[in-house]
Protein 1
Amino acid sequence: MKDNIYQPINGEIVDIIEESSTIKSFVIKPEEDFAFKTGQFVELTLPGKGEAPFTPSSSPAETDQIEITIMKAGRVTGLLHECKKGQKVGIRGPYGSCYPVDDFVGKQVYIIGGGVGLAPIRSLFLTLVDRIKDFKSVTCRYGAKTPEDFIFKKTLFGEWQKIKGVEIKLSVDQAGNGWDGNVGVVTTILNPSDVDIKNAVAVVCGPPIMMKYVTLKLLDFKFPPENIYLSMEKNMSCGVGKCGHCMLGKYYVCKDGPVFTYEQIKGYPKIWE
Amino acid sequence: MEKVFTSKLESFLNAVAEKFQLYVPAKTDDHYTYNVYDPSGKKPVELNDIRTCTPIKEFLFPIRELAATYPKEFKPDDIKPFAVFGLKECDLRSIEILDKVFAEEDFEDQLYLNRRNNMFIISSDCNEPGESCFCNIFGGKGFAESGFDLNVSKIKDGFIIEAGSSKGNSFLMEHSDIFGEIPDALLSERDANRAAVQARLEEKNDHLKFDVTIKQIVEDGCDSDVFDREAKNCVECQACTRVCPTCHCFYLYDMQKEDYFAKMKMWDSCMRLSYATVAGGENPNKVLGDRMKHRLLHKFVHFHDRYGLDMCVGCGRCVDADAGGMDIRDILKKLKD
Ligand code: SF4
Ligand code: FES
């Protein structure tokens, strides 16, 4: 890590993958090896233009390049979407808390994702799959607006479904051509029979409104709040617990999060806004 | 630690100015700000009776500064040792609060620490607490017992200078020729002055002494409509966060310079509408009253939970500065009721 906490490491975009009409994955090669734990985030700088936080979607086992999957949502993400291969970028981090994968050993991991929320989840998924025998099972429930909106389509519809120990179910809000899966928001494919609640953890990542309803549903299933892991989003700037922007109660989402258990934050108002 | 006497400030300040870039209080209208010391004697320095109206954070955490460069990394400038004269006890406590954030071990802010480590702090006793001063509510007394390199107390015939650090102690020893010994009587005079100021503070702020902690008051008052009602007076000038010596929110932004890119660090204000807006456009604090609530929650509840102290020193700067006539003391009182 740099001495100056605001100084990024130089890097370059070496590949760009179109995931959907609004989402692209950027493969970035940092000038130095870049190690992170799954769930942690980085601050990505487009030099001279701006900086924004993202959780890498690649496996932490890869340290020579990282992949960041970005939805066009604001100014900086819009500019990033216009970038071409070869674009120089800066990376600060990794920052914040990670998914405590070692604590998941022996348990069923129930992963629920929506939209671009699949990005951090892919990093977790690849980490789990690397040592799949350590877990009782990995059960995934993903939702997207339309079939076209799923990201990582090739692997999601293909090889991931075949991994032993992994079970994946998908749902879309609106079916399109040739979709024969479930139609409805992601909560419609959550069933108490999916999970052995006594021996499971849930990981939820997606738009705030989706995380809210999924969490409520999990609580309905009697999932203990301390076993529900959420990736929280807040306005962030410094990433290092100084600038004040990302406060969620007494927590700095950048430093104490972005991964929180519901138990940690349930007492604070407006966590889903 | 050394304690010495001098009848004139000048020789003392000249000695300080030989070693440090020295900043001294200067009076404009009825308040003080800081100026660079002029050793020519043309602008005689008066000891400020009360804190300056500008916050001390300006010396440690400037309004805008270069934070990083690209593609070549910049080394933050070597900060030349500088001294600030006339800080008050509330100012020292505000530095303690900033230290908690910027010097926190896991991520030390080198830009801040460079200045902090090179700052020679010369505090002084308060002689005339202002109408808005309510430092005693946060444990202030009008004079400092720690947190300074040197402290100056004005007495009838001169000044008592006391060291509070080894740096301050060596300074007094190196310049023993310009100082005299202090007779005990002068120390008693100082103590009497201090006690009188403290008593005045206690008396004038008696109406702000609550039977519960301020943290409790703000926590309990969270659901009241006080914030929304108070927000009606707020003109969103953000002066409260600018002048506050403990408010430290900032944001980083990027820009292109001639032949390189720069990342800048600039003060921000949680009272600004889009302060908490995320990339998708959602904003949990669209309503002004909610931003005001957030500010008080941060100061008295969340900061307290995290660092064990209030993020307010009772300096009253926000009370003096507020264009809409908002008064944090009134808000606390209304929350209590
Ligand atoms: S909130 Fe007001 S009284 Fe408290 S430290 Fe800040 S400026 Fe001073
Ligand atoms: S992003 Fe600055 S404190 Fe969290």
Note: DSSP finds twelve helices and ten strands in chain B.
Protein 2
Amino acid sequence: MSAKPMNTSRRAQAGKAVDLPALYKSMLLIRRTEERLATLFADGEVPGFIHLSIGQEAVSAGVMSNLTKADTIASTHRGHGHALAKGLSLEGFFSELLARREGLCQGRGGSMHVADMSVGMLGANGIVGAGLSIALGSALAHKRLRPGTIAVAFFGDGALAEGLLHETLNMAALWKLPLLFVCENNGWSEFLPSEKQIAFTLERLSAAYAIPYERVDGNDAEAVALRSREIIEAVRRSGPAVLECATVRVRGHFEGDAQKYRDRADLEDVAKVDPIMRCEAVLKKTRMSDEALQALDADVRSAIENAISVARAGQDPDFERAREDVYTPQGFASP
Amino acid sequence: MTEIRYLRAINMALADAMAEDDTVVVFGEDVSEAGGSFGASRGLRDRFGPDRIFDTPISEAAIAGAAVGVAMSGLRPVIEIMFMDFITLTMDALVNQAAKARFMFGGQGSVPMVLRTPHGAGLGAGPQHSQCLEAWLAHVPGLKVVCPSDPASAYGLLRAAIRDPDPVIMVENKALYGMKAEVADELPVLPIGKAAILRRGKEVTLVSYGASVHICSAAAAQLEADGISAEVIDLRSLQPWDEATVLESLSSTHRLVVVHEAVEAFGPGAEIAARMADVGFDELDGPIVRVGAPFMPVPFSKALEGRYLPDAAKVVAAVRRTLA
Ligand SMILES: Cc1ncc(C[n+]2csc(CCOP(=O)(O)OP(=O)(O)O)c2C)c(N)n1
Ligand SMILES: [Mg+2]
């Protein structure tokens, strides 16, 4: 058996058009949020490490445009885009990243562990590849409890080297689980290009499991949305699929990474394929006026500034409260 | 009263939990069609069907990781890892995911999963199929660890583990699987974190869990013949462990010996001894002595394994040391 390419683009395009302004807004929210996070981080207001997904927003916006609230996602260390596109509250998000009690995780998780179970966001993850099997389990539960609901595992090209990917692909294929694998291939994991780490292609790997595979320009929000739409419909009906999104990492691996290992030219090319600029160009040509675009940007910025003010006004988490959340007290299960 | 085997008690607990709550699902290697490598899940597939109990490939990391995702998404998974030695392959899912989720997501939810796994030497299974690694797990904030010593506690703790909202590791000494004991017709669910005092005594407290409990009982019988009265405590749970019961016993016996099959160095006994040396300092009339396996992998040869394992003679010797 070999993987059947889904060839979805033609049929999907014949269907309902993509809501480009909504995609644009979703990307803009991620971009402006991360731009502010960069400055807040530089100013020392955001503790720990942060990994920005600037340049990769189209993947989050495009895939999430086809998910419902009940669908679940497992994210990565570079998860702000996934989180915001899945619908986390902006105030809860900023409060978390600023380590506040009012944060979604009460200031105990931060950027690398932000989660919101109420919108099906099962967590950013500090462990490369770990989200794969969590999404696998979530898909398994969906299949039993909520047919038609799916789980999505986001992972970077670096996670291709983790053995857990093999276990997860195998089990997802074996059990025909409603699981979409989304690889955000930005060509880098930390400071080493992926071609120095990966001896195979995800396309050929998927074929080995007879899992349908699609590759899409991950910097084209419309393409991601269209292609993932039909793939996701297929995953809802019949089982796993792999979507590889070719994208670019604009910033360093983490904030503060001077990227000395990276070619200047590489970084210049990156600006040319910016997903937001590309989307904006299409919108300008077809639907939206400059004023409308500016108004949208102003809306997004003011929502972000509001969330930052809320976060700044928040309190430090309470130590005793944190201690109580390790596990339920002993004797809980007594009859 | 009826007489049942330890393995049968586990089987009954799984069946009763699955009957009580249809969100309970069981998966692992050879658990379904074969009924478990040791037979713990025999008959469950016929009764509950392959959607409730299913076999997995040999993918321990993904089995445990999937259990986390399953538990986050509305089911209560019970997974089996065939030998405790193989939990090395599940550690990320246990330590970084299951254990931390409640805490690091700010108490938004918990991970109600159970991992059952057998430990223990004595069957000639050799270095990679015998090790007692429970101290690793008890060291991780967010995991609960139970280790039953007999059929009734195997039943009661497994039922509690499955009802518990947090990840629970149930460690079963495989040498106990064939053990028979009389149990009540209605087996109670036992609270996690509560010890049982198996024998009252005045001069020394013997604390252990799992199979070592029986060594302590044998030692207590021998000591009694020599006129020494020993109290025997079965911890049942290691995380959380019943510090209050141990302290109370120490307060009346004033001497303490901690016994387990796990390697003595950095083992669970180190924690118990250290806590009692602290909170029980004023009660102590002798050194706290530990009896555990020597610092070596579990050997294969019976000649070596016999010396490796703790036994009643070693416990008696430890008691004499603290009484001296
Ligand atoms: C298991 C594990 N190994 C190593 C790391 C350190 N680390 C964090 S991100 C990263 C690179 C991941 O690359 P990729 O998956 O391509 O994601 P990207 O950073 O490009 O988004 C590494 C090695 C980790 N967090 N977890
Ligand atoms: Mg990468």
Note: Residues 2-183 of chain B form a domain with the Rossmann fold fold (CATH 3.40.50.970).
